[in-house]
Write a structure and sequence with these properties.
The protein is built from 11 helices and 2 strands. By secondary structure, it is mainly α.
Amino acid sequence: MLVHSRPARRAIHLLFLVLFLPVFALPLLVIVAASFASSWSGTLPSGATLKHYQDIAHGEALHALLTSVLTALAASLAALTAGTWAALAAEKLGRRTRRLLDALFLLPVAVPSVVVGLSLLVAFSRPPFLLNGTPQIVILAHTVLVTAFAYQSVTAALTRLDPAYEQSAAGLGARPAYVLWRVKLPLLLPSLTAAVGLCFTLSMGELSATMMLYPPEWLPLPVQIFAATDRGALFAGAALAVTLMAATLLVLLGVSRIRTKASYR
């Protein structure tokens, strides 16, 4: 740690707790508490109940959760494939062309996601690419929104990658495809798993573009959370939000195990 004085370290830790608890931890704790409440008229919730979670187990929320997970998995894998491919190709480009490619990938992040949703809605509402009203357009929107993060993650990892490994393999007569699959991609595996985890998390919570595109049979959980809170069912919406957080954290834990194993290779 940069601070060597024990009192100074304690002061920094105290400052971190003072800033962390009200800004990050307290809102999440409030959501968790609200998910078990039947009423909340005072400082603390009252009437503890499991009814909201029982409704989730017997209602449409599980289907919406599965829809969100499938959408996030498909979008994350597509974004990782496109972002990795583009990052590897950008290595061979000149500085100006690479900057242009960077700008193209960052453009969906620079504009509001509702603009991305509207642009896809207009672009794919006419033949020959008629995707409006299908699950594919939702997955496409999520892919467009998260690919920039995969591209930037892999690009940053490539700049830190020691070229000696690739040069040694090529010097021993390995073909470029063999070097890519057996040398380069295994070295990039920790960054690839981190990128897919980030893309999955962002896709699980995406709402603005999804609201414009989702068909009735493909209802992601964030849309259901918005619908529940919009009609005043705040406690039921809190239970749905906790379910969404738990599912996301479980997937991230699995991805982190893959990343940890990859780090020891």
